[in-house]
Design the sequence.
């Protein structure tokens, strides 16, 4: 194969990829790596909310409450989906609303990063950036959220298991392999 042919090897992404799953599953980290790998733009709904509000997520929760955050999340998701050409990582709660799931399914393909509770806890336990976990027993809170949410995340078009031994790059490989099972979403060029 000539150098020129090698340089032209790549991907054609036909629909936006929307990363869903629990806080700490790796949606932002893996989503950004996936976008770099596919050579497409990356968007993150949490980052877009923070930018629009000029406040951190804990500040928005503390000042305006979770219902207000969810309203902004829905508006931002609608805007980002209308302009998305690449990978869009969502916040951990975004896929729980039926209206958000409908918007995501209409425009893109949802990929659930399916990490188990122990892995999620190992990732989030030392950080205080997730307001929902600011409780007397954050592990019990995470467990309750996990158990309530898994049946909804399981509705995603594709799911990719996140194991403790997998790096962000390994997870990116796995997501690409899952996307390649859908020629209507991703093709090699
Ligand atoms: N495969 C991985 N291997 C090691 N560390 C990872 C992996 N994926 C993510 N991480 C790390 O775990 C933490 C949580 O990941 P990330 O912020 O991507 O999760 P998230 O799903 O976007 O969570 P949230 O819903 O809160 O936005 C980060 O510190 C990230 O660097
Ligand atoms: O799981 C959740 O409900 C959340 C996850 C984060 O991504 C943020 O969107 C926020 O902290 C709420
Ligand atoms: Mg994130």
Sequence:
């Amino acid at each position: 194969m000539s150098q020129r042919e090698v340089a032209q090897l790549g991907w054609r992404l036909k629909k936006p990829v929307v990363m869903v799953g629990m806080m700490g599953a790796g949606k932002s980290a893996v989503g950004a790596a996936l976008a770099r790998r596919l050579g497409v733009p990356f968007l993150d709904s949490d980052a877009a909310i923070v930018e629009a509000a000029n406040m951190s997520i804990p500040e928005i929760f503390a000042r305006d409450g979770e219902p207000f955050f969810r309203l902004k999340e829905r508006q931002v998701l609608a805007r980002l989906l209308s302009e998305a050409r690449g990978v869009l990582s969502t916040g951990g709660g975004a896929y729980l609303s039926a209206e958000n799931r409908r918007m995501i399914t209409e425009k893109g393909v949802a990929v659930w990063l399916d990490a188990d509770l122990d892995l999620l806890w190992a990732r989030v336990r030392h950080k205080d950036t997730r307001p929902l976990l600011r409780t007397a027993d954050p592990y019990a809170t995470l467990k309750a959220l996990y158990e309530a949410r898994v049946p909804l995340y399981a509705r995603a078009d594709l799911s990719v298991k996140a194991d403790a031994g997998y790096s962000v790059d390994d997870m990116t490989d796995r997501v690409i392999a899952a996307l390649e099972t859908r020629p209507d979403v991703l093709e090699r060029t």
